[in-house]
Each structure stands twice: as structure tokens, then as C-alpha cells.
Design a protein that fits this description.
Shape: elongated
Distance between the termini: 88 Å
């Protein structure tokens, strides 16, 4: 997909790319096609806070970066492949965003006590994510157990029916 460049060689873009380095930007149609989704879905993700508001061209068209696309791909993976709800995805993504801020603060800090506080915050955020994932896993495990139980019932019924069919197929032996 051809990208739109939004920086000139003598300036940096909003992501802090150095002068001379151009970052690719993609229009909403390009992103929707690449991700096999709709423009409305992309707008909705922005509206509910899953995606930061997109940059805009002078004409008001949304522009997405490679980082935006990577985030959208993660959202799709969580939603479509792993079955997370949008609320669960928002919680997971929010914790990721917060952890990035904590990491940056940790790296800027030299005081061990302050670094420890950052580690504790990152730990808390990761535990929140783990809770969401474990809740999903517990639900999936319950569903798995229900299906296995149903399959066990089918196997028992199959066994009973085969036994009935074999009993009906065997000729009765005359009593002596």
C-alpha cells in the first residue's frame, strides 16, 4: 500500500523522528483494506479509546502510522482470535499504555526507592492484565469441560445403542 509522507527532510514529525527520516502515514481506506475491516470500525475504535485519535491531513482525512497499524492488529488478534470483548481489550491495552509510561519513568530515575515504586506499579498493571486473561481462560475451560461432558454422554448413548443393536441381531437360543 503506498504511504503518504507527512514530514519534510528538515523537520521532525510528531513521533520525534529525526530530521530527514520520513514516517509512513496511511489513509483510513488503506488501513481498513490492509486489516480487512471497515472504516467505521476504525473510527469506532478511536471513539471508544482503543486507538488514539488519528492525525489529520489539512483536508481532515485520518492518517495512521505503522505504530497505529500494529496496535490495530493487536486489537484484532485479541478480539477475533482470542475472543476478548472490547471492554477486556480496552483494559489490556490501557495497562500496556500505562506500563510504557512507567517504563519510561523508571529509565529516567536514578533513585533506587523511586525505581522500586515504578517496578511495583508495573507489577500491579501486569497483575491486572493477568486477571483479565485468567478470567477468560476460566470461562474457556468451563466451556471445554461442558463440551467434554456432552461428548461423554454421546459416547455412552452410542455404546448403549450398539449394545441394543447387537442384542436384537443375535438369534435367541432355544431353551433346552
Amino acid at each position: 500500500m503506498p504511504a503518504t509522507s507527512t514530514t519534510s527532510p528538515d523537520q521532525s514529525d510528531s513521533s520525534g523522528a529525526p530530521a530527514g527520516e520520513q514516517r509512513a502515514k496511511y489513509r483510513i481506506e488503506q488501513v481498513a483494506e490492509r486489516l480487512q475491516t471497515t472504516k467505521r470500525t476504525l473510527r469506532y475504535y478511536e471513539e471508544i479509546g482503543l486507538l488514539l485519535p488519528a492525525e489529520r491531513t489539512e483536508g481532515g482525512y485520518r492518517l495512521y502510522s505503522d505504530e497505529d497499524i500494529a496496535r490495530l492488529e493487536r486489537i484484532q488478534r485479541l478480539k477475533d482470535l482470542l475472543g476478548f470483548s472490547l471492554a477486556e481489550i480496552r483494559a489490556l491495552m490501557h495497562a500496556d499504555d500505562e506500563r510504557l509510561l512507567v517504563r519510561a519513568a523508571y529509565q529516567q530515575e536514578s533513585d533506587p526507592a523511586a525505581k522500586l515504586k515504578h517496578i511495583e506499579e508495573a507489577d500491579r498493571l501486569s497483575r491486572q492484565q493477568l486477571t483479565v486473561v485468567e478470567r477468560k481462560m476460566a470461562g474457556l475451560e468451563q466451556m471445554r469441560q461442558d463440551i467434554l461432558q456432552r461428548l461423554g454422554h454421546y459416547e455412552q448413548h452410542r455404546h448403549d445403542l450398539h449394545a441394543q443393536m447387537q442384542g436384537a441381531a443375535e438369534p435367541e437360543q432355544p431353551a433346552q
